[in-house]
Amino acid sequence: MTPSLIEQLAAVPEVWSEQRPWAVSPDGATLAFTWRRDGDWHVYVKDLRGAAPSRRIEHFADACVCPTFSPDGAYLYFARDDRGTECFDVYRCELGGGKLVNLLPDTPELAPAPDFALSPDGRSLALAVNHGPSYAAAVMPAEPGAGALTFLTDHPFNDWSPRWSPDGARLAFQSDTHGQDSVVFIAHPASGDLLTIGGEAMTLARDPAWSPDGRSIAFCGGGGDYEAIGLYDFELGLVTWAWDGRGNAHCPSWSPDGRALVFVVDDGPESSLWRLDLTTGVADCLDVGTGNHYRPGFTPDGAGVICGLSGPGCPTDLFLVEIESGAVTRLTDSLPDDLAQHEFVSGTPAVWTSRDRLTDVPGLLCEPPRRSGAGVVIIHGGPTWHHSNEWDPVRQALLDAGCLVVHPNYRGSDGYTRRWQLANRYLLGQGEAQDCAGAVDFLVEQGCDPGRIAVTGRSHGGYLTMQMLTQFPELWACGVACVPFFDHIDAQEDPAVRNDLRWWDVENCGDVVADRARLEYYSPINHLDRVAAPLLILAAACDPRCPTRQVTTVVDRVRAAGAPCEAIVYPDEGHEISGLEHRIDYERRVVEFILAHVGVA
Question: Edge-to-edge, what's the strand order for the sheet holding 453-458?
């Protein structure tokens, strides 16, 4: 039987866009990258100087991510997940013979973040590891069996993304401090000294990147409405701002000669790629295409920039932009030939009024080629994230069926101003829910039948889907809550939830003792008797972020109140649901459930 469109789209490969999706060998000849081609995320290598096809270097069933080369190019290191639990091991692959060695064997409870860093001499790894009440920066030998982890910090902050200085003497890493603030620490593993960019004032900073000479760190941050690109000078102990414009700038990366930076700038639901000449102050746009640019970096010779791009008809792929000519070369090609002629729809920025009439809400509107009268509100997770005009199989399948689709970038979304990003702190389930409900009025204004509008979202978007069905039950024809949580209290008390996630909840939602009444009121689990629309819940058995222990309770209570409700829990899957068969089934169920209940064949 011919697969449906959503089954075809869900199976399309794409390159990873998080943390460190790619790396180039020191000689510039080989590209390593994380690609979801043979089921889950896996590590591939590609010869940049020849026409040989990309080659997968491991054959694990679990997701493998964040490749990095040893300084001599003989080894490739990567992180392997354990069934979606986010308990990563670090592996070393001998590229000449293919031998794989686990550097963290027999550590089922150890949960390092995947974007470790290899020291310039290739002898040490730096990691962020779940340790006591938080994630802490740590180092360990890069040789198998050579020693154990040594923690560099013992503070309540969560440390992330350690990066070695070029001489290997220092480490820079970003740390969550309060709410959604972050700073960059610089640690001296030998002496134990620890300082921050900005000194005692702790400049808001993240995404640290060392200059090639080790004298400066580029970072994004600052105290304005938009994140700027800063430079921290070690000798002077001063911060200067290299780029400060409209839109959040992030992911800075140095040219090999230290004379230029590349970075990404958000522009509502899309982003742009920029190169800044530090000697002249001139910034040039290097956009590859429409959509979102991800994780740019220079080639070893400095002649080109590699980055990811995700667009409405472009699953995330890697591209090479030549600095001098501007020529663009596609390094990976994920879209199958049989979908190349499909009519992919590009979205446009939209604004509507929140249901509480307190603000205008930015979002993304996607209009189908042929309207059916139905509409769908798709709510993003995070909540510190935003929907973009990029690759989205569920969106495109709904559009193909004639549904008008809108994505609210509600109060709490990033990509706009810092004020907007912080507008839902301690207010989760309140203004952000009003923003999402306001999208229904907007869809009706665009011509949708008010009785044929569905809502769906994943993670925090799944939570907000439940808020829609309990706060505004009269608005919806159906709802699909994907990997959701239902209860603010349980999210802080469930022992299956990691400490760093509980910290985020306390800092951004409130304390279960001091704020209990508010947290209970804005927990959908306490209002399930109000659900009137058919509900589908999709969850994952190994999810460390939104554990499934309340799913059965929710289903039983919704059914007892008289509304149809069903749930699917995918085994051996984490928060993402990344395995091929489960991913296809998951996205197919979302689309088919919605279409069935909004009256679209």
Answer: 348-353, 360-366, 404-408, 375-379, 453-458, 478-482, 535-540, 565-570
